[in-house]
Structure to design on (181 residues):
């Protein structure tokens, strides 16, 4: 994945100026920076939600993401939410189990941390070329974060991944390289 000299403005506010980023095949990177510096804008450009004003982008076709919001189907069970990304029910159940989630439980009866883990499972079950995690561990206690990080690393091993966080310890735990915006 490659971004070269990306510029992006919203009205009169320049968010990105000549931003470049390469993610090698199988590389895990963390993007860090203060709020409002363009981290989510970079992800939105990669996922095709925003178009850069200028610059070049070489983006893989198969991307799976966890957003800052869970974006789950509240009336569905955990397994039904995960299976929206893959028909592989066995793999879906395996990931949910490793994340400590009852696959039959309806999402609207879950805590925020449980919902976050369902969103993680939904991302990880997909066989993608690039995985994107935008504040993927927010709202999780330290013990649950550690379990989730182990599962994320297991299912993205050998795959390219971008992990946006404000937590330097998460970045160091996940990434081969940290990029500061």
């Amino acid at each position: 994945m490659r971004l070269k000299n990306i510029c992006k403005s919203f009205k009169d506010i320049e968010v990105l100026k000549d931003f470049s980023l390469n993610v090698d095949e199988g590389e895990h990177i963390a993007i860090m920076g203060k709020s409002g510096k363009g981290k989510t804008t970079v992800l939105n450009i990669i996922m095709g939600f925003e178009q850069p004003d200028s610059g070049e982008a070489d983006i893989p076709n198969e991307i799976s993401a966890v957003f800052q919001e869970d974006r789950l189907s509240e009336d569905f069970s955990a397994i039904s939410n995960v299976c929206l990304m893959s028909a592989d029910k066995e793999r879906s159940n395996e990931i949910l189990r490793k994340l400590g989630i009852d696959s039959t439980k309806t999402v609207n009866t879950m805590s925020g941390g449980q919902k976050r883990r369902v969103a993680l499972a939904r991302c990880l079950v997909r066989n993608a070329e690039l995985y994107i995690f935008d504040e993927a561990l927010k709202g999780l206690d330290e013990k649950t974060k550690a379990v989730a990080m182990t599962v994320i690393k297991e299912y993205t091993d050998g795959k390219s991944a971008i992990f946006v966080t404000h937590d330097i310890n998460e970045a160091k735990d996940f990434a081969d390289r940290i990029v500061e915006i």
